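Class, carefully examine what follows:
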Amino acid sequence: MKLICETCTINRSVPGGKRAFLKTILAIGKGSERKGDETKIMLITTSNKSGTKYNALNNISKIFTRFLDEGKVTISFNTPAHDVQIKSDKVQLMAFLKVLKLVLTGGSQSANPSQCITVPCPTSAPLRLPCLTVGKKKSSILDSPSVLSTKCVIANRKDYPTKGFSRLLVTLQISDIKLTRFDSKILLLQKLRNLSLSKNCIRTLPRALGQLRLSELDISGNNLADCSWEWLLESNIQSSLVLLNISDNGLPFLPINVIHASQLEVLQADNNHIRKLPFALCNLSRMRILSLASNCIDAVPESFSRLRLDRIDLSGNELYSQGATVPDLRLNTSNTQHRQPSSLFEIAAHTVIFKKIPYTLPGKIPFTVLELLRRAPLCSCGRPCFQSKVYLRTKVLKLNCSYMVINSNHQLWADCVYCSEKCLRRLY
C-alpha cells in the first residue's frame, strides 16, 4: 500500500525541529524479504530516495485524525521520537489508514479512526504485504519517485500514462499527439493549475473542467468550433483563470461565456474566423493582453475604450481604412424607438448597472436576468442599451492601450449603441 502525499517530520527530541512539507511516497510493507522481518512504514522524498523506515508494530503511540475531513493526519512514533504530519487526498488517506489499522490491530475493526486514539499493537499482523526492498534495490511499489513530480509533458502517444496521472501535478502538457477527446482522468487533478492540450483534435470540453482551479489553459490548435463553453460558467474556473489560449480552432465567434472569467489577464484567439466581438468583453477589467490576429474583424465595440490594455494585436483582420460604409446617423434622429419610454425592467437595469450596484452574488437574481445584465451593450455615457440598434463602424476609436498592432494605413473603427437622442447627436 502506498500513498502519494506531503509530509512534515517533527523531531520531538530537538526543539524547533519542524521542517517544511515535502512531496512524499508513504508506503506500508515488510522491511525486507526475510521471513521474520517486521512491518515498516517508509517515507521516500525527492531529497531522500533511499527512504526513511519506521517500525509499525509496537512503535506507534497515537494517530491523530481530528482533521481527517481536511485530508490531514499525524502519526506519532516512539522510536525515533518523530511526529509525521501527512496531507493528502481524503479518500486515499482513509484507504491508507484502513490498511495501517489492520496492520496494527491484526484485522480487528473495533478502533474508531475518527478521533485521536491510542493504538494497542499485537506482535504480528496477519496481512500479506509487499517487500519495501529487494536486496539493495527498491521494489516495484517504490521504484517511481518521478511520481512526485509536479510537472508532466507528453509529446508522444507512447508516453501517455495508462494508469492515470500523479495527483500532485501542477502543470500538465499534452500536445501534438492527435488526442480526439478530453481525458476525464484530468478532472481528478485537484492541484492542477496549468493545462495545455494544444495541437490535438479535441472537439468538445466537459462542463466539469470548470471545477478545476486552473490559472492557465491552452486549448489552441483543436476543433472547438462546435464546442459548448458551459465550463466557463463554473465558479472555480471563473475565479482562477488568468490566461486562456483558444487560437486556431476555426471559431466563427468569440465565445460569450469568456466574459465570466473575471480574473482573465491574457486572452489569445488568433487564427479563427471571428467577425464581431461582444460588447460585454469590456467587463474583463483585469485583461491586459488581447490577441485577435488573423481573424475577420472589421471593427471593435465602442465599449473597448473602457479597457486598459498593455497590448492588443488586430493584425491580419479586415479593418476598414475609411468610414465609407458608416450610416448617416442624423437621418435616424426621428426614430421612434428613441422616443418611447423605457420599460420598468430597463429603468431598473439602468439604475443597477449605472450606479454599480452588486448583483452577481449567487441567488440574488435569476440566471437569465443576470446574463441579460452582463451582456447588455453600453452607450458611450455608460448606460446599458437593451433594445437599441447597433450602428456599424460609426467612429474612429482610440484605445487606452500601451502597444497596439494593426495593419498599415488602417484605422480602428468602432461599432456603437446609443441610449438616447442626446448621446446620438454627440457624434456630430
About this structure: The chain has five helices and 22 strands.
